[in-house]
Amino acid sequence: MSSPQTLSEADRRKVAAWAADCAERVLPLFETAVPGDQRPRDAIARARAFARGELTAAVEIRRRFVAGRAARGVSDPAAVAAARAAAQAAGVAHMGAHALGAAAYAARAAGLAAPGGTDATRAEVRWQVERMPDDVVAALRKLPALGEDSAGPLGAGLLASGVLGSIIRDIQSALDVDGRA
């Protein structure tokens, strides 16, 4: 039996494009810090190709860690978070809950890069939620609340605690607001 965090392949394809949009907004933070490293950009392109049905989940499952490795050895925290956002976007092919990871890392990157980081983080979350298509809202509503299911990225781990956990809770709360139905 698979985890409820997986989502169907059709739903993963829907949320992959949104996750790529979230990661792409902060990609310049990585590319400025590490010019020439294309791994995060490639991960975002692969997430988009998966969303369009051009790549299979099996192929992407084998490649999902490539962008995350780009974060190693980078000293700028915003650049690290941006690379992790791209890696999470690529991971959507494997498990739909990674879309929330992509959004959380992107919001974290925006906050780390800006003076008054908390305001920038909140603004990024607002942007993400406002640009979430209805089919993505419907798919993400199928995910368990953060911490309810341990079999995936929304269980006990990096995404479930601290700033990332707070961001994901904010996004999941926004999915239940009347204007997002």
Write up this protein.
The protein is an all-alpha fold. The chain has one domain (9-180). 65% of the residues lie in helices and 0% in strands. The chain is globular, with a radius of gyration of 15 Å.
Secondary structure class reads mainly alpha
Percent strand equals: under 5%
- The termini sit apart by 29 Å
Number of separate domains: 1
**Biggest sheet statistics:** none
Q: Radius of gyration over alpha carbons?
A: 15 Å
Helix run count? 9
Per DSSP E runs of 2 or more residues, the count of β-strands stands at 0
Low-confidence stretches: none
The geometry reads as: globular
- Output the helix-strand order: HHHHHHHHH
- On the 0 to 100 scale, the average pLDDT is 90
Level of helix content?
55-70%
Layout: helices, strands, pairs:
Layout: H1 9-33, H2 39-51, H3 57-63, H4 66-70, H5 77-91, H6 98-113, H7 117-130, H8 134-141, H9 162-175
Helix pairs in contact: 1-2, 1-5, 1-6, 1-8, 2-5, 5-6, 6-7, 6-9, 7-9
Keyword list:
mainly alpha, 65% helix
Summarize the structure.
The protein has 181 residues and is mostly helical.
